[in-house]
Amino acid sequence: MGRVQSSLGHLAENMLVSSVHGVLATGSGIVVIYSCRDVMTDRHWLAREYVWFLIPYMLYDTYAMYLCEWYKIKEENRRHSLATFQSFLIKNRLMLTHHAVILFALVPVAQRLRGDLGDFFVGCIFTAELSTPFVSLGRVLLQLKQQHTLLYKVNGILTLATFFACRILLFPFMYWSYGQQQGLRLYQVPFHIPFHCNVANAFLIAPQIYWFSLLCRKAAQLFGGPQAKKDG
């Protein structure tokens, strides 16, 4: 029982930190978006300064993911080992790759490589964290075996809605915003921006689509009836 409580306590702590980050990132993104009338040249200090908060959060979240995995293994009376770490890397390879891309690619781009351009788009990327508090709450409720409660279902709907809006529709919105300023239709924008921008956006949206499909699959199981009853 003590181990279960310890695992749950760690998960709740991680949820709190992730939720605070999600709120701060989204709030910062909204401020930047509404402050930049020109999507390319207007500046806002949060577009750069919030990144310094993002870096330690990503490092913390990676460590927290490992601890969550270790607590599960600990219940089987297993200890830290190279095999444990390798198992963690394999099970979480997509999320770890996502974190690595943020730390070693997006951070340098946001801080230095883009120069004085694109604060608006950095703000848009910040708002992608809106779904994080709902995802975190869902994990805690699942750990508490509350997956058949109304709260879990409502949270699941909010998770899908915020994830779709801020991690999928976000990219067409950025293209549309640029097109509005340049007098271009949405379908014309990809042909009027640098090729590497399209490639970068494709790499960013691909895992989001995959994760969204997983969320939809879980939602279908939850609201499907027979599977839900079987799980209960």
From TrEMBL:
Please name the Pfam families in this protein's record.
Answer: TRAM_LAG1_CLN8
> Where is it mostly found?
membrane
The transmembrane segments are 12-34, 54-73, 94-114, 120-142, 154-173, 193-212
Query: PROSITE patterns annotated for this entry?
Result: TLC
- Provide this UniProt record's keywords sorted from A to Z: Membrane, Transmembrane, Transmembrane helix
Stated membrane topology is: Multi-pass membrane protein
Domain TLC spans what residues?
Answer: 7-224
Q: Which InterPro entries match?
A: TLC-dom, TLCD
Its annotated compartments are: Membrane
Q: What is this protein called?
A: TLC domain-containing protein 3A
Taxonomic lineage per UniProt? Answer: Eukaryota, Metazoa, Chordata, Craniata, Vertebrata
